[in-house]
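Problem: given the chain below (232 residues), write out its structure.
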Amino acid sequence: MSGILTPPRRRGSEILDDPAVDPELMKRGMRDVERANALFGGRRAAIIELLPALRELRGAGRMLDVGTGCGDIPAAAKGAAAEIGVDLRTVGIDLSQPLVSAHRSSNDAVVRGDALNLPFSDHSVDVVMASQVLHHFTADDAIAVVREMNRVARSRVVISDLRRNLLAAAGLWLGSFPLRFHPVSRHDGVLSVMRGFVPDELTEIIEIATGHRPRVQRRLGFRLTTSWIPTH
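Solution.
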């Protein structure tokens, strides 16, 4: 049964991954992604995994959000940090210029840049996070992204992503209609799920990139999360 519901990881191109996509379509699609994160468990899973790292900051710290999109995850992280008495400053990085320009207020600072080559010094940011980002990459590029995150992080790396499952893909497809998602969001969302991971795949990517074998957690909403102290 698990083999039927968890087919091989799919390749393919998401429309919103194209740098030449219409800026208004990009912004509309990312608003749908933000709603999906809130409704289907992505935001919750990311913050649950992040909370122990926030408690380690001892009052204040800085977080880099890789592939920040609309900035909904760092905004939620700042709120969660404030609740436990931590002053969290966030920096978002994204390859999309329209998103960087339109959502500057969601982070304390936003940078346009490539996750494969993060423009930050070694060990320069307390926490480096990627939420619903890693599945956009091939396995080899995902290893490179994780290696970059591990290089930049000082105290903790946090990853939250999609767990590949046909039920999750079908649920997203069906839910997208009453939620009035754009057809592009529907296409990309289903493809994203089918490009997601199973725990062993995500574990292997991180182990190859860092030499560290993390504990990968299954979360509600067909999510996977993991975090580790960076290896240098």
